[in-house]
Structure formats: structure tokens, C-alpha cells
Amino acid sequence: MPGKKHIVLVTTKQPSSNPRLVKEAIALANSGYAVSVVYNYWSAWADEADINILKTYSLITWIKAGSNPSLNSLAYWYTRIRHKCYRTIGGIFKKNVTLQALSLSQFYPELKAKACSIAADLYIAHNLGALPVAVAAAKKNNSNYSFDAEDFHRSQEAGNTKETAITRLIEDAYFADAVFITAASPLIAAEYKKNYPSLQFTVINNVFSKQQQPSFVSISNAPLKLFWFSQTVGLKRGVQDIIAAMNLITDFEIELTILGDTSEQVKQVFNTVFTNKKHQLIFLPACNEQALINTAAWHHIGLALEPGFSLNNNIALSNKLFTYLLAGNAAILSGTPAQQLFYNEYPGTGWCYSTGDIKALADILEQAYNNENLLQSKRQAAWQLANTKLNWENEQEVFLNLVKKAV
């Protein structure tokens, strides 16, 4: 339609693996903007999950950049080799912003070409690797760009790593000219503000639409059902802690469901830690967002067990927590600064314990099982909070106002 403002969102992942981007794209399309999303291949499970998103939201123009290993393995492996070369050269010329931008994404040249080919009023970058792409597209088309900090990127890993240095270089080069920058938690915004005191960082929480909320499910607490998920299941997310706590419980049964891409090596580590066979570990494959939410709804407790292995891990509020609220799960939160702050504001939605305190974690499980009324009230409080306050219908207004001012 002539006269429509055009917004391009750029990500180095796929739509189904970047729910925050998808929510923004839908909100923009529903508000009358012309919307394009430029993305690249990320994983096989996301290919399947993308099909429904692309079909359901056909008003959005979805543009895949780069190759897919299942469709063109030769081209895909070429980009992998190319990316390794860029990383090697970038390791020599460490202060070269262009080379470091190339090192951030396997498909940087393809993403850049696609984004630059679209004339738009605003380019919104999701993921650090997408930021130089949005900058290049905005410069070519005499437009503006913004950035969504889903993490405190310069401290995603512990210590001063090579990635940390690259991140700082990219952020220092491009943050200042962004028309706005959003952050995924209050503490991420505060930490960035310390580094860039002249810039404004606006919090957009990782909440979900009420339209995705299942009906509240009443479940017998025998067995006690626990739920944890991630796109890729790793060993630094506190899962071993909950298994160790389950090992201490002998007087009732527990089921722990772990959903996500889980390697055999990771499963072996978990099964080695898991010694109390009174309980059960259930592994489910990664799935689309709505299926995940529906699965969570059939569990009593959602687990947000972040160990605080980095500054980012300490200050982030992941979509994991807000998924649990939406699904009607009481949440068990490790006491990272961000999660402790959340719990202090909403104590009725679950429990918080000192990170790494296995005995305290086991005590919470016993309390949840032995006091069914308390467990039920916390689950209902979580569901109600997502339904009335912490949902995308409310949060999107902050985002849309930023875009309106920017264009």
C-alpha cells in the first residue's frame, strides 16, 4: 500500500528461534507498517517450526538469506569455511570493525546484501551479528537503525574472551547512532547505561501474547511435574542442580521434563548425575513456541535455574520465566540479581533460592508437594499475572511508541 512506512527486522537466527523478533514483526504489521524480516538458517528443527509462522503471518515478507545444509550442502559448507577465514583474519586485525562484523555471522555477506536491497524507514537489528547489517542497510538507503539487546552481549561469557573484545568494538562503533536501543531486562538496560551514559536504553520484557495462553490446567501433584527448556540444552544452565535436589527426595515421585535439542553427551552427563531412580527424566525434542507453551501447562513448576556464570547470566530475564507465567507454572528461580529482583516484586508466583544451594532446592520441592494448596495458588497467581499484566499486549505499546517516534 503506497504511503506505508516500511520496517525491516534483521536476525542471524530463524523466526522460530527468535520469538522476540516475531512478536515485534507481528505488532508492527498489525499497526499498519509494511514489515520485512531478513534471517538465515540456524537449525533443522527451526526449519520445520518456521513453516507455520511464515504461513500464519503472510502479511510479513519473510526473506531467508544464505544457504541451508539440507538443500544446498556445498554452498552451506562454503560459507562455513569462509566464516572461519574471516575469524582467522579478524584475529590478526583486531581493531578492524568491518572484519569483526564479518566474523560475527556465517551469513553476514548474504544478510547484508538482502537487507541493503530493501529500502526502508527503519532497520531493527536482533542479535549482535545483525547490528552491522542494519547499519549498512540504513546507510545505503539513507535511513535509520535501532538495536534490540536481548542480552548484555559484551559479558555473555565469563572473563575477557576474544568474543568480548569483538562485542565491545561493535557496540562502541554503532550504538551511538541508533535511534533507539531496547533491552530485555531492567538490569541489562542499567548495565549498558553504565557503559554509555549519554544513551537511553528502554526495557522490553520477554513476555508473550495472551492469545497464546492455554487455559489453566489443574494437575494432581503425584507425581510432582517439573519443566525446563532451552533451544539447545547445555551444561551451564543449572539442570544438574535440580537433578541433585531430586536425588535427595525419597518420599514422593518427581518427573523432570527437559525440552530442547539435547546431545547424547549432555544426556549422559545428566543421567550420570541422576542416581535416584524413584524419579524420572523425560527428554523432549525442540518444538515450536506454541507447542512448548502447551507442554509447559501440564507441569506444576517451571525451572529458571541460572547459575550466574557470567554477568549477562546474572542480569538477564529470559523468555523462560515469562513462558512459565503464561503456562500457569509456579516458578523456581535461582537467586541471580535479575531473578531475585523479579521475585521480590512477585513473590506469590513461586520460590527463590540461593544459587547452587541444593538442600534449599530440595526443601522447595518438598514444600510444593506437601502443600498442594500453596502450589495451586502460586500456579494460579503466575497464570493471572501473565493474563493481566506481564503480557505482550501491554509491553508492545512501549515498543510501538519507540518505532513511531523513530519513523
Helix content: 40-55%
- What is the residue-mean pLDDT, rounded to a whole number? 95
What is the rounded distance between the termini? 17 Å
Approximate shape: globular
Q: Give the assembly state of these chains.
A: single chain
Poorly predicted segments: none
The largest pleated sheet is described as: 7 strands, parallel
Tally of separate helices? 17
The chain-level structural class is: alpha/beta
Strand order of the largest sheet: 3-2-1-4-5-6-7
Task: Give the topology string: H per helix, E per strand.
Answer: EHEHEHHHEHEHEHEEHEHEHEHHEHEHHH
| Rg from alpha-carbon coordinates | 22 Å
Strand content: 15-25%
Number of strands: 13
